[in-house]
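Internal tracking record. Fields below are filled automatically when a chain is submitted to the structure queue. Please do not edit lines marked as system-generated. If the sequence contains nonstandard residues, flag them in the REMARKS field before resubmitting.
Queue: standard
Priority: normal
Entity type: single polypeptide chain
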Amino acid sequence: MIRLGMSISDDTILRHLKRNASRVDDEPPARIIGIDDWSWRKSWRYGTIIVDLERRKVMDILEDRSVASVARWLKRHPSIEVVSRDRCGLYAQAAREGAPQASQVADRFHLIQNLRLAIEEQMSLSGRATGRALLPDEDIENDHDDRALREQAPETPWRNQLRRAHRQSRREVFETVHALSKEGLTCSDIARRTGYGRRSIAKWLTFETPPERRRGALQPTSPLYFEAFLTQCWKDGNRRGRYLFHDIKHRGYTGSFSSLERLLATWRRAERPETDEDKDDAASARIGLSDRAPDNLPVRDPQTGYLISPVVAAALCIKPRGALTINQVRKVDALKQGSQTFAVLRSFSMRFRGIFHGRTSVKLEEWIDDAIDSGLVFLARFARVLRRDIDAVCNAIDLPWSNSQAEGQINRLKTIKRAMYGRAGPELLRARMMPIKLTDLHTK
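SYSTEM-GENERATED OUTPUT FOLLOWS
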């Protein structure tokens, strides 16, 4: 301020910014808004940003990401007619409670990404064909995320096959790298021949067995952090999810109710007697998976000879042919010829994209029915989740609104937050994100 010739302190400027931000009003009232989360600290603490999609401006910044705070904000703005959001169930519930009159719109980008993840998991059933996360079998068995499921309840056959395929592919990659090293090849030669990173290969060669994963300690965001207390309550007969959620909340639990319910569901299934019908369903599922396994084997890239990973296959599967490069077209053709599963998945993904480009939701129900009946477990799961949020998905097809403007404002927020490192509190951050009202400025 001194260099600018202004006889005023920095703190006074910031105080005026905060005061003006607290007096911001919405005139005219907002009709169409986008809601998304942003991170104070990634994977630890999140806030909420609310954007007016019509006027392309930030309406408010909330300090937390909760149903209660978003619902309270929505109740103070009864003029809202459309709420655009991602696939987060938290904001869907907040919109139902705070703005029941508003139509919800699921973000189209997140819908396509959810489909891509489902395709990737489906293509991973016979192995990942990648050098990532090389772990021994015993390390998988002791992983925190899977421990409760493995100890408390039997898993579905397709999930077991997915894990076995991943373990087998990791083992094969590790053995291949060591075999090539024994032939006298250098790390760079092995990298060129296999397609894996040279640094990763050098690291794998220092181990006699696949390296173990560095598992982080359990945090209060996971219900397994309170496993001893929950187990004792379960034995004492306290088995209502809401009651247990309330109890561990008072003990410091910061996770969601749905995470707790997933853990309790495994305990309930473990105590439920298995019927003959369940055994028949599991046997038929195993037979179906074994029949599909040879068709789902990884395919080699016709140009390089490397195996095409499920990540690459999923990205190519949702990409229209007109947007593919020449090399990508060759990969897609090789995948369609070598894997009937990929051909079916690409057919479904192109139909899904066509529904969005056609701007008509009448074909969505038929697509969901066909996906559920396809016999592809991960695609069917994606379709069932779509049906639970069918109104918001149909609005995403029929209406022009999306969360792209909210995503852009989040990028702006991140830039401002990092530039104000150490002073980016909620009041100042909100003041800098909100539009400045020129009528409030003193001019001479």
